[in-house]
Write a structure and sequence with these properties.
CATH architecture: 3-Layer(bba) Sandwich
Number of strands: 11
Distance between the termini: 53 Å
CATH class: Alpha Beta
Bound molecules: flavin-adenine dinucleotide
Oligomer: single chain
CATH superfamily: FAD/NAD(P)-binding domain
Radius of gyration: 19 Å
Number of domains: 1
Strand content: 15-25%
Length: 258
């Protein structure tokens, strides 16, 4: 028996979930910013865009956000962040300790949890187990929407037509695959993708903010997608660049939509 003396009803539980998610889906079919990918750069960008008052949805094809951050380095759930990005750990209340001058250690689990909490607190809405399979580009030549479908439809190869959402800006935060950038390039968009290069943490971390930009009208790349488009090196389990790149993407969109 429930504390209120009322019998719990399974159908009421179902109605609550279906009606609320239907309401959210209808509301978020037209947004200011659609962030594709819930890794560290996508979560950071989404949280800061929403804090900036932009209606923001984060689309993640897996059942959980976090991307490649969970695994830390070689499955050790620890990440390293350099001095330049320490302020973002503090900003998101992520506990860190200095390993040696310039190197700050944090738990990958706490980092994902706190970035996700920041995005939730800022009002970001999440579409989980949803994959972006194409982009909408019309007469104005800019990415003005995304074609979405349930990830299981994609992975099982079911022939089910997708739906479409409208967005003023799309953020490709899909990691090394730079999925959205590739979709634009594959369909003849004027976008050249150079592809990720060798491991060189110093260079990759130093360059990533510069590579975080609008690479096609309406499309901003962040995180490893930014390095993949620019033909930049990879950096391994140092995550400062991911946070700084997410912040830079949010800043660029904020300025463009002001
Ligand atoms: C398998 C793997 C390989 C890695 N390789 C490297 C490496 O080569 N170099 C390196 O420096 N670091 C690597 N890392 C470390 C680290 O993961 C990344 O550097 C970091 O997590 C990248 O952050 P991100 O935000 O750019 O993207 P990620 O953390 O990769 O997150 C991208 C997110 O986008 C989602 N996504 C992708 N496509 C779609 C789509 N079409 N629709 C919706 N969601 C989508 C993914 O599910 C994922 O959650 C790797 C980690 C993993 C797990």
């Amino acid at each position: 028996m429930h504390v209120s003396g009322m019998e719990l009803d399974e159908v009421t539980i179902s109605r609550a979930i279906v009606s609320e998610q239907s309401r959210v889906l209808l509301e978020y079919l037209d947004v200011d910013v659609a962030v594709v990918g819930g890794g560290p750069s996508g979560l950071t960008c989404a949280a800061l865009c929403a804090e900036n008052g932009l209606k923001t949805v984060l689309i993640e094809r897996k059942l959980s956000v976090g991307g490649g951050m969970w695994g830390g380095g070689m499955m050790f759930p620890r990440i390293v962040v350099q001095d330049e990005a320490k302020r973002l750990l503090d900003r998101f209340s992520i506990t860190s300790t200095q390993y040696s001058p310039g190197y700050h250690l944090a738990s990958s689990v706490e980092s994902v949890a706190k970035l996700t909490a920041a995005a939730c607190d800022a009002g970001v809405e999440f579409l989980m187990l949803v994959s972006v399979e194409d982009v909408v580009v019309k007469g104005d030549g800019r990415v003005g929407g995304l074609v979405i479908n349930w990830t299981p439809v994609e992975t099982t190869g079911l022939h089910v037509d997708p739906l479409t959402l409208a967005c003023r800006y799309t953020v490709d935060a899909t990691g090394h695959d730079a999925m959205i950038a590739h979709m634009v390039a594959r369909k003849g968009g004027d976008l050249h993708i150079r592809g990720e290069r060798f491991m060189w943490a110093e260079r990759a971390e130093a360059q990533i903010v510069g590579h975080t930009k609008e690479v096609f009208p309406g499309l901003v790349v962040t995180g490893m997608a930014a390095n993949a488009v620019a033909g930049e090196c990879r950096m391994g389990p140092i995550f400062g660049g991911m946070l700084l790149s997410g912040e830079a993407a949010a800043r660029a969109i904020g300025e463009a939509l002001r």
